[in-house]
Design brief:
homoheptamer; mainly beta; 10 Kd Chaperonin, Protein Cpn10, Chain O; 6-stranded antiparallel beta sheet; 40% strand; ATP binding (chains A, B, C, D, E, F, G); chaperone (chains A, B, C, D, E, F, G); Chaperonin_GroES_sf (chains A, B, C, D, E, F, G); 10 kDa chaperonin (chains A, B, C, D, E, F, G); protein folding chaperone (chains A, B, C, D, E, F, G)
Chain lengths: 91, 91, 91, 91, 91, 91, 91
């Protein structure tokens, strides 16, 4: 995946959604409510917000909720701009 | 239960729900409102939030409310991602 | 009443409801709005919240409101988990 | 009036409502909107809340609004549990 | 106007409404929306709230909005209990 | 325009609306949504609010939104009492 | 583009919308929800708000959301006045 040159704001996490269902580490994406939990790779993180450390790093594989999450097309690729608290689990 | 390698965010508590009704320590799960209080074992905790110490530890058995609690399937097991204030009682 | 081994979170108060109407100290439970004010004995208190000292102690008899108060069955006994601000009067 | 042995929480004011209409100091209770302003004697005050000094003292005669004000019967007497900001005027 | 002996809480302003329309300083009370702006003399002020200095003094003539403003009758006179932010202009 | 002798509260800005459409500096008032952006001259400013510096000065020409903006007639002139965040642009 | 002489308030970002769809750096504006993400050039920025550093600079090309964004015509040109958190991505 080409490294992005741009920046995102404090407290934000840009992920590249992972589509396939089951991976080596045994994570099955969809929880009992299929449309709630998704997986993706972190490609960009913003700085920390006051009092809220940034706990996610570029390269992490995360499970996240898609609540109020804008979609972005950058250099032909589709990304999702999460707030850190959309992240449920960092593998 | 296999130890999880991943992480969750500050203020969060990941529990493995306990299904059976009555246990050695005499706790009967369902309160008078059957669907309100549940029991589970804590498998992961996030760090403390500013001004809110993390009072729950891995291994605790907790009674909790299921309000806005996302379900997660990790390595084939079902978990619930609580916020600490979903925890009603730490046995 | 058996002493509880468990813990509750900061700012919380666990009470054992007192059912009978009139007691030695002359407190009549139900105020003019019968379903609003109740009495109970405090069996557990959480630690203080930031800026909000815990003003209630184990053993206090309190008059309280039942707004958003989850019920818990612990070791066969019924309890109510109050927030401190549900407490109207400490006898 | 018997002195109450109990306590109320920080920021609260317990009053004994005064029923008669006109008093020596000339205060006529009901403002143009009869059901809005009432008078009573302060019998108990809580401690100060953070950043909000307790400006009312036991024995003060106050004019107050009855918004979200629980009623309490203690030792056969009827009281109202105000928040300090229900108090409009301290005579 | 007899000086009032009582007190009001922090951040509050007690005014005696001025009824006549035009005064020496040329202030015409009612703005284009007749029922929105009124004039009155300040008879009592509370202390400052944390971070909000009290900018109004006894004796000031103020133009104010009547939003959520309780009316009080004290010693036979009608007053209005403003919050400071009801005050639009201090003449 | 006669200088006003009065005062307004912290964080407020009193403007004299400018009616004509186009001015020397080329500002055309109405944005694409005609009723949203207006121009006026600042005649009075309040002091700064805690953490919010007052960025507008008397004599500035500003473009502003008319959301919840009370109108005032002072000495026969019509003014608008803005909050600073109604100001969109300072020419 | 003529440099603007004016100022905007703390936390605000004034952009000149970019209309054409695809640019040299490969950014395709419209995300899957066509009306959500737009591109523009930053022509003015306000100072930082308390606790929220200003992360955008004049000359940046940004992708932004059009939520509650007033439009302004200045010197015959159309601009949008964003809050910094309308900015999704800084190229």
């Amino acid at each position: 995946m080409a490294e992005l040159k741009g920046k995102i704001l404090a407290g934000k996490v840009l992920v590249k959604p992972i589509i396939e269902e089951k991976t080596a580490s045994g994570i099955i994406i969809p929880s009992s409510r299929k449309d709630d939990a998704f997986r993706g790779e972190v490609v960009l993180v913003g700085s920390a917000l006051p009092d809220v450390p940034m706990e996610v790093s570029v390269g992490d594989i995360v499970v996240y909720e898609k609540k109020f999450v804008p979609e972005l097309t950058i250099e032909g690729e589709e990304y999702l701009l999460l707030s850190q608290d959309n992240v449920l689990y960092i593998e």
